[in-house]
Each structure stands twice: as structure tokens, then as C-alpha cells.
Automatic annotation (TrEMBL):
Residues 232-329 form the DUF6545 domain. The keyword Membrane applies. It comes from the Bacteria. Keywords: Membrane, Transmembrane, Transmembrane helix. This is DUF6545 domain-containing protein. The lineage of its organism: Bacteria, Bacillati, Actinomycetota, Actinomycetes, Kitasatosporales. It comes from Streptomyces populi. It holds the Pfam family DUF6545. The chain crosses the membrane at residues 21-44, 56-78, 90-109, 133-155, 167-191, 203-223.
Amino acid sequence: MGFAAQLPDLWRHRRDPLKRSFCAVILLSGLCFVLGAPPTVALVNRLTGVPNMAAPLAYGAVTAFGAASLILIVHWRGSDPVQVRRTSRAWLFSYLGVIVAEGVLFSLGDTPVERRADFDTYYASTPFIREMIVLYLMAHTVAAVTTTMLCWSWIGKVKRWTRGSLALLVLGWLFTSAYSVVKFVALTAHWLGRHWDGLSTSVAPLVAVGSCLASAGYILPLVGPRIDSAVTFVRLRPLFRLLAGPAGRRRCVTELSWRTIGDVELRLTTRETAIRDGLKRLAGQLDDQVRQTAYRDAMAAGSSAAEAEAIGTAAMVAVAALAEAPASVPETGTIGISVGDVDVVVSVGARVRRPAAGSRSLDTCQPSLLSLSKAVRTPIVDAAVQSRMTAVRQLS
């Protein structure tokens, strides 16, 4: 499913080695579990007519997954493009050679009895098959240990989602390394005349959960920024409703197609643009006296200087939006910010004096908009709006 979701982007960026290696990791991760499942093993063996034909296919998928992971990490870290290309090709051809060797060894060996779950230990002493199993486990171990070390050495140099991704990768590949260790222990015990097959058939599949963790680690850098955008989109809603919501009927917001419902970044950009347009429209109506009063009230209430500044600015913007809205003033009109109903923006139209001299420019970068949106809901802002409405009623 993850691979299918990436197909459109893969087609658009099919020449991007990072995108290709990422999609290969996702596809091969799922393929390893599918090919290793006993029902799939039985199906492959029956369709090919070759007992245990599923074994080299599963081993090849695991080996390819390790190679794709190494190549992805190399491209992800970057550096000199020539060095990246040389290193990734070295890993690619090395692991291709291992996959070919696994196929050749399987064809030279003899596996007449179908084994769906304990192929490793059942044929641990069979000529050529023994070498194939050891080769596959060694290649898998090298990929796991190398990837873990690369991720660990990089984890202190990045932040946020990339750091979380690397932490998941380290944990996942540690589990995957444990998978190889458990398999090696079971094989060694078999060679020494002991029967610890349960390690291979019961314990090893449990520690293979590392592949799932590793896949999640590779996906996190793509999903993480979208989560950030979605959270920011929601947090900007109060300010958006105040400046560009549907209540005023004088606001223009670009309508987006239903096809963009999953494009969080586009919707966030549209919302930020509408907010900035609204602030620009109100620039000539901002009363700095309102800001100063709300700022002093916030400081007296125990807010920090930054919080008080945001509250003061929010009060100034809310009062300006109140003066701009076209509807008439109800008897108990309020924008209802204290109870969260920012949509109800009440109007005083031309009755409110619009101060132009006290106007001030606003910082419209995203962090400032988030602070402003949070401050819009505070009681001090609501009090400033009600105070202005009371003054308007007295004038009228």
C-alpha cells in the first residue's frame, strides 16, 4: 500500500535515485514478509513445481531489501555526488552478486522435501544449501550493522522528524540484526548436534518486526512535514475565521477542488495567503492604542512579554476586523472569542472611527501568525472587542 501510494510521485521523479531507492525499500520490505509467509511458500512451490523454490526467492528479497536500505541511506545523507554514485553502485553490484550466488547455490543443492517454516534448520547441513543460507545471513547482517552505524553516526546532526526517523531506523535495524543472530545460533546448534529449531521458527519471526520499524523510519521524513502542516492548518483556524471566514461575505478565499483534499501543504498555503490578505486589508484600520491597552492588561495578568505582545496585536486586529465587517450590531453582540466561536464577527460599520495614524505593520511569518491565532481566543482580546462595541453603542 505504501508503495502504491508512492507510484504517482515515482513516475514524476523516476530519474531521482533517492526516490527510486525509497520506493524499492518500501516494496521489498513488504515483499520479504509476503514471500516468507508459509501460505505464500506453499503457493510458490506449487506454481513452480520445484520443492522449496520459495526459499531463494525470499532470501533474494531480504538481501535486496538490505541493499536498497544501504543505497537509500547513502543517497539520503548526500555529500559529493560522484562519491554517492560510486558508493551506491558498489553496494548494488555487491548485493546483486550475492543474490546471483544464492540462486546458483540453490540450483546446485538438493532439497526434495518441502519445508514451509523450518527450511533453514532442516537443510542446515545440506551441501550448497548450507552455504546459501550462511551467505544470505551474512549479507543481511552486514546490511543491518552498516545501516545501524550510519544512522547512529548521523542522528546527532539532525533534528525533528529526521532525527526521529533515524532513531526508528536504529531501533529497527537492531531488531533486524537480532534476527540474523538468532538464525545463526539456531544453525550453529544444529551443526553441533543440538535441536534449537524453535529459535528459527518462533523467535526469529518475532524479531523480524525490525523490518516494520525500519520501513516506518524511512517513511517518517515524508509523513512528518505533512503532520506539521496539518497541525499548523488547524492552529491557524481562529485567525482565519476572523479575517477570511464565511461570516462577513466580503472575504474572498480561493476555492479548492475536492481533488486537493489530501494536499495539506496546498491548503495550508491557501489559508496563510487568505490571512495575510486579510491583515493587509486591515492595515489602515489598526489602532495602536488598542494594542497598548491589551498589552498592559496581559502583562498585569502575568503573561510573558512575547505572549502579551501577541495578545495586544490580536486585540488590535480583532477590533479592526469588527469595524470592517458589514453586518449590523446585535444587542448583545460579541465576536465570542472567549468561547471559541470566532466565526461570529460583529459589525459597527461606519460608526467606528478608523484610525489611520496609529497603524502599524504586522509580522506575517508563520510563527507570528500562529501566536496571533492562539491569542485571538484569549479573554483579553474578547474584552477589547466588547469595550469597543460598548463605546460605539454610546456614540450611537
